[in-house]
Design brief:
Catalytic activity: glycine + 2-oxoglutarate = glyoxylate + L-glutamate; glyoxylate + L-alanine = glycine + pyruvate
Radius of gyration: 23 Å
Helix content: 40-55%
EC number: 2.6.1.2, 2.6.1.4, 2.6.1.44
Distance between the termini: 60 Å
Protein name: Alanine aminotransferase 2
Largest sheet: 7 strands, mixed
Subunit structure: Homodimer.
Number of strands: 14
Shape: globular
Family: Belongs to the class-I pyridoxal-phosphate-dependent aminotransferase family. Alanine aminotransferase subfamily.
Oligomer: single chain
Length: about 475
């Protein structure tokens, strides 16, 4: 009998090659255990509201009124909603004449793109053009759109930091390109080593790969580091000399947990450097409402901004965007409120400010508790989480554990993470899902569980780790 088009053997090979560890084997096993009644703490994905973070009040009020505009005609609306939320809802409804149920422009609502441009100008000190800003269903859709545009065939390479967020390896495989991994230096707090990066590019070119773009994730996922201004300058010079597009994933720019290295955008550093770089380096920057103190992952609001891309290229990107007709409209409104939040003097300002500050301060404490907790465990070492939402500790596995994993036909860190899941209900992601140096093992966990649950989670991890290390015999801490 002839094979049918959707039989596994007949599928697009790029789809079959695509892997996405964050929702991979560990997540599927955790979901099974949950169905069996086991309490699971899902720390595998940066999903703040799923782990108990409360939504900010003001944006939800604005979107609620936009979703149900008949409430604005109710004479009692002012008893339920503050006047500034009512005014803002009317503002967004005036920008979207068909309401939230109508398609918007394929690039996003022009008035909201203008709000994003104003936000970027305030942040960086340089004007931004709304025509070069596209609103997207989360930052992920924007990243995929750009990679799809850049990758022409399997000989086109994209430089991606390792450890990396697996969106990049998955999308590059899906679009038929080549992943060119450059390793972050764990001993240098996950910094960039340009000697090694240059060597990586030379090796890729010697194999016939055309390296076309470079990805940075700042603050880092899964590694949690914040890049210094000097590092970003070096990065931009490198992209200029090597003729690479820089894809700057800056979705964690509000998640900063130390004062030494505040977030600074690649765009600001580029314009500070002046010509020729500021006129020639092609840069695409990404942001989202899913992270920060917003955590609105399910709303799928995002944007990308293009710098130094030729008009004809922008037209082609518009054509690709228009195939999907429109980014989701509620997500666009969330983005509008994120880039244009309540200001001092507004009725909702104090509440918004207090809610935001409370979430960020708690995340800062949790980042410290998580790092200290890991570093107190036998054979575990962890760099401090300077930003983003994750810890990425190195687990120094005893030789016997590595042998046991081989016998079980598992990668050693998958073996460890599965044992951790079965014993404690803590669902993490093995470091191999993000890439790591040969013979080195990690896991990634979010810092998002409720702060009051942290002592119990850390204690549970420590007890498991102690018994695991004891079982597979002593292995002295280096």
């Amino acid at each position: 009998m002839a094979r049918k088009p959707l039989d596994y053997e007949e599928l697009n090979e790029n789809v079959k090659k695509t892997q996405y560890a964050v929702r991979g084997e560990l997540y599927l096993r955790a979901s099974e255990l949950q169905k069996e009644g086991k309490k699971i703490i899902f720390t595998n994905v940066g999903n703040p509201h799923a782990l108990g973070q409360k939504p900010l009040t003001f944006p939800r009020q604005v979107v609620a009124l936009c979703q149900a505009p008949f409430l604005l005609d109710d004479p009692n609306v002012g008893l339920m909603f503050p006047a500034d939320a009512i005014a803002r809802a009317k503002h967004y409804l005036s920008l979207a004449p068909g309401g939230l149920g109508a398609y918007s422009d394929s690039r996003g609502i022009p008035g909201i793109r203008k709000e994003v441009a104003d936000f970027i100008q305030r942040r960086d000190g340089y004007p931004s053009d709304p025509e070069l800003i596209y609103l997207t269903d989360g930052a992920s859709k924007g990243v995929m759109q750009m990679l799809n545009t850049i990758i022409r065939n399997e000989r086109d390479g994209i430089l991606v930091p390792v450890p990396q967020y697996p969106l990049y390896s998955a999308a590059i495989a899906l679009f038929g390109g080549s992943l060119v991994p450059y390793y972050l230096e764990e001993e240098a707090n996950w910094g960039l080593d340009f000697v090694n990066i240059r060597k990586t590019v030379s090796e890729a070119r010697s194999k016939g790969i055309t390296v076309r773009a470079m990805v940075i994730i700042n603050p880092g996922n899964p590694t949690g580091q914040c890049l210094s201004e000097a590092n970003i300058k070096e990065l931009l010079q490198f992209c200029y000399h090597e003729n690479l597009v820089l894809l700057a994933d800056e979705v964690y720019q509000q998640n900063i947990y130390q004062d030494e290295r505040p977030f600074i955008s690649a765009r600001k550093v580029l314009f500070d450097m002046g010509p020729p770089l500021s006129r020639e380096v092609q840069l695409v920057s990404f942001h989202t409402v899913s992270k920060g103190f917003w955590g609105e992952c399910g709303q799928r609001g995002g944007y990308f901004e293009m710098t130094n891309l030729p008009p004809k290229t922008v037209d082609e990107i518009y054509k690709v965007a228009s195939i999907a007709l429109s980014p989701n409209v509620p997500g666009q409104i969330f983005m509008g409120v994120m880039v244009n939040p309540p200001k001092p003097g507004d009725i909702s300002y104090l509440k918004f400010s207090s809610e935001s500050k409370s979430i960020l301060e708690s995340l800062r404490r949790r980042a410290r508790m998580m790092t200290d907790g890991f570093n107190s465990c036998r054979n575990v070492v962890c760099n401090f989480t300077e930003g983003a939402m994750y810890s990425f500790p190195q687990i120094r596995l005893p030789p016997r554990a590595i042998e046991a994993a081989k016998r079980a036909d598992k990668a050693a860190d998958v073996f460890y993470c599965l044992k951790l899941l079965e014993a404690t209900g803590i669902s993490t992601v093995p470091g191999s899902g993000f890439g790591q140096k040969e013979g080195v093992f990690h896991l990634r966990t979010t810092i998002l569980p409720a702060e009051e649950d942290f002592p119990a989670i850390i204690s549970s991890f420590k007890n498991f780790n102690d018994s695991f290390m004891a079982q597979y015999e002593g292995y002295s801490r280096m």
